């Protein structure tokens, strides 16, 4: 049995309109359901970042894009630009459009359908900004990222646990509503389904289903993609010149549909991640992005963290390089 959530306040995840006051200026997080982005939309993001803040865009572990260094009040113009480009379809739901999908799967239609239903359901605006939906085409790439609700080849998954329920976008909406109802019933401020007492089982019961522990999805590993070192999309990385569409992945890579991938050795930056560090984060003890180094071929993923919070750390076994007042502490976790 899981303990009840100890959250005592709503989450403060930034959005495109509700920005976070970071040490280097405003931080806006632009949700990209399924990581889908057209070349024109990427151009809008680049122009907005260059003219309103830091020109380097950040790719996140949820396949979203962040704009840093915004001057005070710049989020108003940023929101207007995003809305005009189709990147902000709902001001009320923009922080809850957290949808990760199999980058190589035929799930775009399902992603768009769920996103539309999500934005059209007023009650779902109350979802926490950390709440995550995954849409896995069955290959097992995004289900292991442990979304709160998800589909694995059409089968409902709750906090990583398969259930007996099957369906499509409307089932995901029902599951999200069931999470909100269970949260009220438990008088909880939980941000994630797994934080509720027996969350997966109780939400499944509300959907007249049950958790099936005997059939867990197998992790297939991340799909091939173009590595973006440390997830920093600089002006020099002009992917929009090569493809009309770009898919941002939760592994901070990009997939270019229709563009053949060259046969070459893996980038030494594959599997290397880092938090914002100095100067963007006031809590950081080091400029981790400047200190980060490529990893050894075949070694474990490496995450560089500016403090003990370890923001952005990957799931699964990895090497952590944590900044301390005495220097970096290395450990396998």
TrEMBL record:
<keyword id="KW-0408">Iron</keyword>
<dbReference type="Pfam" id="PF03460">
    <property type="entry name" value="NIR_SIR_ferr"/>
</dbReference>
<keyword id="KW-0479">Metal-binding</keyword>
<protein>
    <submittedName>
        <fullName>Nitrite/sulfite reductase</fullName>
    </submittedName>
</protein>
<keyword id="KW-0349">Heme</keyword>
<dbReference type="InterPro" id="IPR036136">
    <property type="entry name" value="Nit/Sulf_reduc_fer-like_dom_sf"/>
</dbReference>
<keyword id="KW-0004">4Fe-4S</keyword>
<feature type="domain" description="Nitrite/Sulfite reductase ferredoxin-like">
    <location>
        <begin position="27"/>
        <end position="84"/>
    </location>
</feature>
<keyword id="KW-0560">Oxidoreductase</keyword>
<dbReference type="InterPro" id="IPR051329">
    <property type="entry name" value="NIR_SIR_4Fe-4S"/>
</dbReference>
<keyword id="KW-0411">Iron-sulfur</keyword>
<dbReference type="InterPro" id="IPR045854">
    <property type="entry name" value="NO2/SO3_Rdtase_4Fe4S_sf"/>
</dbReference>
<dbReference type="InterPro" id="IPR005117">
    <property type="entry name" value="NiRdtase/SiRdtase_haem-b_fer"/>
</dbReference>
């Amino acid at each position: 049995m899981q303990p009840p959530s100890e959250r005592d306040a709503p989450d403060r995840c930034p959005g495109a309109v509700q920005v976070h006051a970071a040490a280097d200026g405003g931080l806006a997080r632009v949700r990209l359901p399924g990581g889908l982005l057209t070349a024109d939309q990427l151009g809008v993001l680049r122009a907005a970042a260059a003219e309103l803040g830091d020109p380097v865009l950040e790719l996140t572990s949820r396949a979203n894009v962040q704009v840093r260094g915004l001057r005070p009040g710049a989020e108003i113009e940023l929101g207007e630009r995003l809305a005009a480009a189709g990147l902000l379809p709902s001001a009320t739901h923009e922080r809850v459009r957290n949808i990760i999908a199999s980058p190589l799967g035929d799930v775009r239609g399902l992603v768009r359908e769920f996103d539309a239903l999500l934005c059209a359901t007023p009650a779902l605006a109350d979802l926490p900004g950390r709440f995550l939906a995954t849409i896995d085409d069955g290959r097992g790439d995004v289900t292991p990222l442990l979304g709160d609700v998800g589909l694995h080849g059409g089968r409902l998954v709750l906090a990583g646990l398969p259930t007996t329920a099957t369906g499509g976008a409307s089932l995901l909406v029902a599951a999200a509503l069931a999470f909100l109802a269970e949260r009220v019933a438990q008088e909880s401020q939980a941000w994630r389904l797994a934080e509720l007492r027996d969350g997966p089982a109780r939400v499944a019961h509300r959907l007249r289903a049950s958790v099936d522990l005997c059939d867990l999805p197998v992790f297939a590993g991340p799909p091939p993609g173009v590595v973006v070192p440390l997830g920093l999309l600089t002006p020099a990385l002009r992917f929009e010149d090569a493809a009309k569409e770009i898919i941002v992945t939760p592994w901070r890579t990009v997939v270019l549909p229709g563009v053949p991938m060259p046969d070459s050795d893996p980038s030494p930056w594959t599997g290397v991640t880092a938090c914002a560090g100095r100067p963007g984060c006031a809590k950081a003890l080091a400029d981790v992005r400047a200190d980060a180094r490529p990893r050894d071929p075949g070694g474990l993923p490496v995450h560089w963290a500016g403090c003990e919070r370890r923001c952005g750390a990957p799931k699964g076994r990895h090497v952590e390089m944590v900044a301390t007042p005495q220097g970096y502490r290395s450990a396998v976790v």
